[in-house]
Specification:
Blueprint (H helix, E strand, L loop, with lengths): L5 H4 L29 H4 L7 H9 L8 H6 L4 E7 L11 H11 L5 E7 L7 E6 L2 H5 L15 H7 L3 E6 L1 H10 L7 E6 L8 H11 L6 E6 L4 E6 L4 E5 L5 H4 L20 E4 L8 E5 L2 H8 L5 E4 L3 E2 L3 H12 L6 H14 L2 E2 H22 L4 H4 L2 H7 L7
Parallel strand pairs: 2-4, 4-5, 5-9
Antiparallel strand pairs: 1-10, 1-11, 2-3, 6-7, 7-8, 9-10, 12-13
Protein name: Coenzyme F420 hydrogenase/dehydrogenase, beta subunit C-terminal domain
InterPro entries: Co_F420_Hydgase/DH_bsu_N (IPR007516), FRHB/FDHB/HCAR-like (IPR045220), FrhB_FdhB_C (IPR007525)
Pfam families: FrhB_FdhB_C (PF04432), FrhB_FdhB_N (PF04422)
Length: about 400
């Protein structure tokens, strides 16, 4: 008789039931499986342990005296890139999908954990284990809602898979790394994306209705380096709304409490990270964290145009001025917001400095949120690197 491991004896919570992390639950999906047995150690919002897991994953922690590692985590290389022949319908040029397909086609992995959308709702996430290129392509385009990616962990173990690629965001990846050795895998590859400010499906609807001219036709959107939100619509048109024109007074509570308490914007525990915020407009930002990440990127390097990362401008004054504006829910007239957007786009931070601007803005906001709403967790929950970043600014009480 085969004995069950402790996690297999555990009972998952029913979807929608109260979570161990309570209101800070990011709905990563771990508690929808019998891996809930490890939730106290694994959940990023119960036990924050990025330093320990960096050591486990990358064989070292980030160097806090290195300005780039302080902000962007352990890495071997960074670059800007875009596909020479973009994938039709991809949110960017399709680098993430291309890497996943190459790994599957070359037999490096037997499956890819990614997120498609339900047939009824393009924004309703549907985690799957993709086993064909077509299933991977069906997952292209980011889903800006909380997604239970790890809900498929039981399927992985029961399938007998030994080599797996997981695509996910920071809170999911921290939980995954914490239970990695329990999965019975010979090799785990992790392809991460930077992540900030996810919402519930209801929160997304409020955001779209408050911000877009045509919320029902939005295909995807992104907060871009030109200080505008770019909404792509069904007819292919792009609607641009300046950051400073957001109805902050109506949207302050729309983002998930987990996202308001997160300090892993850059997905520190992935092997390879593909995003956009550290790259010039129109390019993607790639962070190679370890040898596994280099192996993944090398598969597609000949399909990419690349250039070195750059940094320009100074973010700090803009960040400092933005702290009380967000805190008080200031909403500017649209003509003022558009003018500010044009000016800041011309003289404001670009490349890695824009990435630091975004990190500083979110970390200061999130630090205040945790301090005010979960003060008992503040010291243990905020990583040292985040404390150093936040410490550059004067915060309101």
């Amino acid at each position: 008789m085969t004995s069950l491991t402790p996690h297999q004896k555990a009972k998952a919570l029913k979807p929608g039931s109260r979570r161990p992390a309570k209101e800070l639950c990011s709905e990563c999906g771990l508690c929808d499986t019998y891996y809930i047995h490890y939730v106290k150690e694994a959940c990023a919002f119960i036990t924050q342990q990025i330093d320990t897991l960096e050591e486990q994953t990358h064989r070292r922690s980030r160097d806090l005296d290195n300005p780039d590692e302080l902000y962007f985590g352990v890495h071997q290389d960074m670059m800007a890139a875009k596909k020479q022949q973009p994938i039709a319908g991809a949110q960017w040029t399709g680098i993430v999908s291309t890497i996943a397909i190459e790994m599957l086609n070359r037999g490096l992995v037997e499956g890819v954990v990614c997120v498609q959308n339900s047939k009824e709702d393009r924004f309703q996430p549907l985690p799957v284990i993709a086993r064909t290129p077509e299933e991977i392509l069906a997952a292209r385009v980011n889903k800006p809602t909380l997604s239970p990616n790890l809900s498929i962990l039981e399927q992985v173990e029961k399938s007998g898979m030994k080599r797996l690629l997981v695509i996910g965001v920071g809170c999911q990846i921290q939980a995954l790394r914490a239970v990695e050795k329990k999965l019975g895998l010979e090799k785990l590859y992790v392809l991460g994306t930077p992540c900030v400010d996810n919402v519930s499906r209801a929160g997304l609807q409020k955001f779209l209705e408050t911000t877009s001219r045509s919320p029902d036709t939005v295909v995807h959107y992104e907060f871009m380096q030109d200080f505008r939100i770019h909404f792509k619509h069904e007819d292919g048109s792009i609607e641009k709304v300046p950051f400073f024109g957001l109805k902050t007074n109506q949207l302050k509570d729309v983002f998930a409490p987990s996202c308001m308490s997160c300090f892993d914007y850059v997905n520190s525990l992935a092997d390879l990270v593909v995003g956009y915020m550290g790259a010039p407009f129109g390019w993607q930002w790639i962070v190679v964290r370890n040898d596994t990440g280099k192996e993944m990127l090398d598969l597609v390097k000949d399909q990419l145009d690349t250039q070195p990362v750059m940094s320009q401008g100074n973010r700090q004054e803009a960040v400092q001025q933005g702290i009380p504006a967000y805190d008080k829910g200031v909403t500017l007239p649209m003509w003022v917001a558009k003018l500010m957007g044009v000016v800041i786009d011309k003289i404001g931070p670009k490349g890695l400095e824009y990435a630091r601007f975004s990190i500083d803005s979110h970390f200061t906001r999130n630090y205040l949120y945790v301090k005010r709403n979960h003060g008992e967790k503040l010291e243990a929950h905020v990583p040292e690197f985040a404390k150093r970043i936040v410490g550059q600014y004067k915060l309101p009480e």
